[in-house]
Amino acid sequence: MPTAAPGEPGSGVTGVRLRSPKGRAVIAAAVLGSALAYMSDDMLNVALPSVAGDLGVGVSEMQWVVNGYFVTMLSLLLTAGSFGDIRGHRRIFLTGLAVFAGGAVVAATAPSVPLLVAGRAFQGVGAAPLLASGLALVNGSFREGERSQAVGLYMGLTAVVTAAGPALGGLLVDLASWRAIFVAPLVFPVAAAFVTYLAVPEAPPRPGRSVDAKGAFLAFLTISALSFALISGPAGWLRAEVLVALAGAVVCGWAFLRSQRRATQPMLPLALFRNRTFSGGNAVTLVSYLVSAGSFLFLVVQLQTTLGYRPVIAGAALLPLYLIMLVGSPQAGRLADKIGARAPIVAGNLILAAGVWWLSFAGAGSVFVPDVLPGMIILGIGLATIGAPLTAATLGAVDAHDQGIASGVNNAVGQLAGLLMIVALPAIAGLSGKTFDGPEFADGYVVAMRACALLCLLAAGIAWATIRPANASTDPIRV
User: Fold this and answer.
1) What confidence tens digit (pLDDT) does each residue in 71-85 have?
2) Using an 8 Å Cβ cutoff, are 8 and 164 in contact?
3) Which pTM does this prediction carry?
């Protein structure tokens, strides 16, 4: 018989209180680890010109410095979540911190691009358990009535800490060198490891469950091939290497699904997707995250290329969004604990659609306070309203023993949304093959933002159809 997890009937444990020392420790450790994973990419983006100049390479080489991290992280999220369920999420989280720090040391001391790519890929290996087990620790540690609020606090704080990435990266490059962006953030894994080791409780691992090595390998091949195809495709979808990667993703994906149906202990139990809330929640996550990533990217470029903002000012202009998420996400989580998750998720997507539509009118001659700021405030309210209820409802549909798998799926879906955004939105906006600073961008910006607004309406409809209302209680699915 599986050991009951904290807060599960039969465990003898009611769960951690949010305002207790252990509750604060769980939030602090998860925020530090997750923000570290997200900040790494933001800081590197600021430093790319300095790295290219120092190592004497061009844009194509720099692309893989960025993508090496993304591909390994996305490929291993499912595996990391499954390992957490088997070995314990606290242990896997600590392992992720150590691996990430090791990759940072390799990247900081790399004398050439291949070693820098290797260090970044190694960081991605560490980032996967940080995201999967960090979220699983938050969602699985707290008592039922405070779970959504805890997830909201975690998401809001992570967003605010992550927001410091671009400014911190620029400051480190100016004062020291690009290598400092890998060294200075090591204070994060050290602090997170200290807090986790001393104060974060470990949920009992699931005894009798083994690692699905075949499934993990096929999942890695599938996501790696798909990632390569989506990243390389915009330069020419009919090129041989892109077609081979797409074919490989299809074949390996089919083999992965077949192995999961036949395995006695699969890493991704397909029975999870029989739960309407879990499947619908991940579909909403895919669409909502695509909208948020796309609107952020297009807005910050529009502020610079059309409105003439300096990069540092354009980055600072996004601060209201992060502050609203910091304040609003816990409140949305608290509201979801009281009235259920469906209403906040649907309302949040409608608010998000209104904010994105407003911002689609930001163009030449627009003034920040009357023309841009109101739309950003509406956008921030929408994101804050969606995040915590959506995550809590999606993971709450799954039994406590499978929180790592559920968290890994949810994080992988969010990361896939960012990758799809880079491919889909420029194509929809007619910007494929063009530069972001060209004259066509202003027109493409309007099309992209309004497409995002329509996608929000789609997400609201999916949420209404799949997320259970507050009065429709059901037991979490267990596999």
Assistant:
1) 788 778 777 877 887
2) no
3) 0.73
